[in-house]
Amino acid sequence: MDLVEQLKRFNERRAATDPIGVNSLVLLVDAMNTYIRNFCAVPTMNDTGEHVGGVTGFLKSVGQAARLYVPTRIICVFDGAGGSQRRRKLFEGYKDNRRPMEHLNRTYNFKDKEAEQAALKWQMHLLVELLEHLPVNTLAIDNIEADDAIAYLVQLVREAGGKSTILSTDKDFLQLVDKSCEVFNPVKKKLYTPELVVEEYGIHPKNFLLARIVEGDKSDNIPGVNGVGEATLLKLFPYLKDAIPADIDTLLESCKRELTVETGKRVKKTKTPVACLKLSQAKDDGIIERNRQLMDLANVDISGTAKIKIGDALRDTPHALNKYDLTKKMNEFRLLSAFGNYDEWLLTSWVPLTRYCKE
Length: 359
Fold this sequence. Notes:
Number of domains: 2
Radius of gyration: 23 Å
CATH superfamily of the largest domain: 5'-nuclease
Helix content: 40-55%
């Protein structure tokens, strides 16, 4: 009996004793985040000199996560067409400041921007074709951003008794971290648990959204409260590191309590910190509520139809690994040399996922 057959039988035995099944441990891939990052950072060329780093880097990154965490299934979630429309209606400047791609590794240089954009598009199409031959699900819903779809999937997996691992470098996902959801940042090589979020940021995941609302998000062009950054928040409100959820009213009430000091029969009030005044003004101006609607992933604002489609993706059985067609496509675009021992990569990264797949 060869190694592949042994692993297949092992998977069948493990599946038979798994009380939850295919959704026991779901790896949720923030697909555009992963693809763009690798396109910019990985200079890999195929045998004909074409840049293929976006495709190969994506597959290696997801494969690495699959080996590390041995998920029961993988869902690659892409932004749907028109995904930013809802947030643009809330704030016209949403994502308006997106800068041109910055290559972290300049070993491969495109001759011009047009060539770079052409490579970006054809590699994306190729990636989607390759994923069709791997034991994963792909998901993209019109008018829904990947962040919202992933957040709702986390909720569904939690309700079913399973656990999720999100593969992304996006800090916004840290607001979802709890005992049933972790975030793996492949650049930092860190798996974020509630404890690690508190250790690194000084803020508990239950209060991470509040901190983001106040700070804003430069990458998405969402302005926060001017002059009130992370350091100020931690100094004035150290309890944000605790697991007790806070909101803007909690912060403002805290300011009042801290500024009132009883001295015998007299009540002495100290000068109000400028940050507290700015927070109060931001609430009155609607900035706090606007940012909450833009950044809240724990309570996603998506239609019932979209929720049904996301739920269907979780109920859908992944298709089996199609090694023949995958290898044929890899050969067609001269990608095999990028994977070293190709058969071992398939065996260790993807075959373990086949225990719940369709034949």
